[in-house]
Amino acid sequence: MKIAATLDNEGKIFQHFGHTEQFKVYEIENNKVVSSKILSSDGEGHSALAQLLENENINGLICGGIGGCAVSALTEAGIKIYAGISGNADEAINALLNGTLEQTTSPNCNHHHGEHHHEGGHSCGHSCH
Q1: What is the residue-level pLDDT of the chain in tens, covering all 129 positions?
Q2: pTM value?
Q3: DSSP-derived secondary structure letter, 110
Q4: Distance CA 105, CA 126 (A)
Q5: For residue 97, with 0-12 CB atoms within 10 Å meaning exposed, 13-18 middle and 19 or more buried, which class applies?
Q6: Is 51 inside any structural domain?
Q7: Could you tell me the CA-to-CA distances from 113 to 35, 48, 109, 124 in Å, in that order?
Q8: Cβ(104)–Cβ(84) below 8 Å
Q9: Does 119 reside within a domain?
Q10: Do 11 and 75 form a contact (C-beta atoms < 8 A)?
Q11: Which of 5, 18, 62, 102 has CB atoms 3.0–4.6 Å from 82's, for a disulfide?
């Protein structure tokens, strides 16, 4: 099984899925991490990122904020979503393996504190294309 986590430059969960520039991909066997690698992306929108994860045969995604269109694209690709997560990526994967990380498919925009998103109020500026 492969689980990807959105990753910032400090090893923490990146808080805006649609702008993720890198993922940490964990290979899981017998409920243990057997390897991990950094997967770079261009950070160019939820559809391209969902396709990248699908092409890498990712089974689950740990992320911070995520919009409805991204949830739909990932769900269609058969990827389980663990959203609204913050903190260290390695700690989050350990919580997942220990059964203490909650799975959600609910879109959230909690990561937008103070960011400038003016399109249509609080729409996160995304469209489902």
Answers
A1: 999 999 999 999 999 999 999 999 999 999 999 999 999 997 778 889 999 999 999 999 999 999 888 999 999 999 999 999 999 999 999 999 999 997 665 666 544 443 333 333 334 444 454
A2: 0.82
A3: G
A4: 17
A5: middle
A6: yes
A7: 34, 25, 9, 11
A8: yes
A9: no
A10: no
A11: 62
